[in-house]
Amino acid sequence: MAKDRLIIFDTTLRDGEQSPGAAMTREEKLRIAKSLEKLGVDVIEAGFATSSPGDFAAVKSIAESIKDASVCSLARTTHSDIERAAEALENAVAPRIHTFIATSPIHMEYKLQMTPDEVFEQAVGAVKIARNFVDDVEFSLEDGSRTEFDFMCRVIEAAIAAGARTINIPDTVGYGEPGEYGAMIGRVIENVPNADKAVFSVHCHNDLGLAVANSLSAVMAGARQVECTINGLGERAGNASLEEIVMAIRTRKDIFPVETRINTEQIVPVSRLVSTITGFPVQPNKAVVGANAFAHESGIHQDGVLKYRETYEIMKAQDVGWNTNRLVLGKLSGRAAFAARLEELGIPFETKAEMNEAFMRFKELADKKREIYDEDLQALVSEVQMGDTDEHFRLISMDVATKTGRAPHAALVIRSHGNDHEVEADGDGPVDAVFKAIEKIAQSNTDLKLYSVNAITTGTDSQGEVTVRLDREGRIVNGQGADTDILVASAKAYLNALNILESPDRLHPQRDGV
Ligand code: KIV
Ligand code: ZN
């Protein structure tokens, strides 16, 4: 039987970015967007254009460079939000405006302080405004899973009549249960008289660990778009994970009446890229993209897999892009090989100076580390591009002394606003000493919420990738740094977080205003 196409709507760059600390720069978002295009997603939600000038610029750059996917911006139901989204999407090949308003009693009463009739008018008005700018308009009923059924059908019917092509019914707070949520989607499709004029979409959060199950249940009930993110990144416990949805549909072809156009071999590379850029590590036992997802530890399993792979494996590691951690470059590789590999990875450089800087750093790294992998290149480029954003603090040099029985001591030279400052401190450990020394100049008034080190590749010569999460009066940022010396990586990550804190904060689409 011919299968329907399931539209994969990736919202890593919008909902994913709403995870505390996951904010990305324009360059980082563009890199991820290009890999999402290669992965074959149908729609890339590039951001919330109104939220900040930086996010506007990111949506605009993505709209200008992506040719093989629709590019979408989120907008609340106000005229100014929708106009801003349209402006950012002006040069997109296939622009989509995604406008939303909350429709559940609890959100209407306490958050919006609007009556259902006012929400209805606002929703319909927003779809009409958006249709003045683009043909492809998506309308979401925020907190859809807790919305009263008749009101939901009324709003949806009117939104479709006003020109919405996609209707999204999110499980915003992750409250849905698969049987109930799927049944609700099926009932809505059956009850809305003009349902055949729109694609029904779902957007599930993972607060109870049910986001993927809820999304798949909705697909069985007739939803033909799933909104999801790489590695399940997203607000709070995250969104439905793209890789799990796609591989479930592909592996259980016998059950699901749909197919996607995802190039599954790109899944692991994109997962790694998102993890490197956001500093959110992937848990080892995460389905599909976790380091253990295809590792067979127990003797019985190994024996079975060696005799006949299908005894314990339902997917092939190569099909999702494992083993692509290939050696790309080494000490003797020249500029042309370096540039060619970056091009293959879809890494853009806007200026020759940026390229020269990246090549110089590559040579420095190749002196310390014999084998350079794609992940090393991604981390290196992140650092070069980070240098483009307003840099208030930069590590110039560092000397850390540790000896058994003595407090570790760190002495650093930090450049701040063009001046070099020598700072030093003792600490409870070497990382603590480094951070205390930095604080002597930064005096950031922040709380350290998270410190983590990850090996980028395997082997003891691997670069350590450090994530530092800082909280200043409720504003949370993640900084990253990579180096073969994890103390240097730690200092870079801390300074990166401080630099991000110096940039303006952005609006949150669901918590700020209508
Ligand atoms: O979770 C949610 O409801 C959202 C909407 C803005 C689609 O992210
Ligand atoms: Zn969401």
Write a brief structural summary.
The chain is α/β, with parallel strands linked by helices.
Key descriptive features of the protein:
single chain, 514 residues, alpha/beta, TIM Barrel, 4 domains, 8-stranded parallel β-barrel, 3-stranded antiparallel sheet, 16 helices, 18 strands, 39% helix, binds 3-methyl-2-oxobutanoic acid, binds zinc ion
Structural features, described:
By secondary structure, the protein is an alpha/beta fold. The chain has 4 domains: 4-278, TIM Barrel (Alpha-Beta Barrel), CATH 3.20.20; 296-321, no CATH class; 335-386; 393-506, Double Stranded RNA Binding Domain, CATH 3.30.160. The chain has 16 helices and 18 strands. It has helices at residues 26-39, 53-65, 79-88, 105-112, 116-133, 149-161, 178-191, 211-220, 242-251, 267-278, 299-307, 335-344, 352-368, 374-386, 430-442, 486-502; strands at 4-5, 7-10, 43-47, 70-75, 95-102, 136-142, 166-171, 199-204, 225-228, 258-259, 327-329, 372-373, 393-403, 406-416, 419-426, 447-455, 464-472, 475-483. The longest helix is centred in the first third of the chain and has 18 residues, at 116-133. The structure holds 3-methyl-2-oxobutanoic acid and zinc ion (ZN). Residues 15, 170, 172, 203, 205, 235 line the site of zinc ion (ZN).
Q: What is the topological layout?
A:
Blueprint: E1 4-5, E2 7-10, H1 26-39, E3 43-47, H2 53-65, E4 70-75, H3 79-88, E5 95-102, H4 105-112, H5 116-133, E6 136-142, H6 149-161, E7 166-171, H7 178-191, E8 199-204, H8 211-220, E9 225-228, H9 242-251, E10 258-259, H10 267-278, H11 299-307, E11 327-329, H12 335-344, H13 352-368, E12 372-373, H14 374-386, E13 393-403, E14 406-416, E15 419-426, H15 430-442, E16 447-455, E17 464-472, E18 475-483, H16 486-502
Parallel strand pairs: 1-10, 2-3, 2-9, 3-4, 4-5, 5-6, 6-7, 7-8, 8-9
Antiparallel strand pairs: 11-12, 13-14, 14-15, 16-17, 17-18
This protein binds 3-methyl-2-oxobutanoic acid (KIV) and zinc ion.
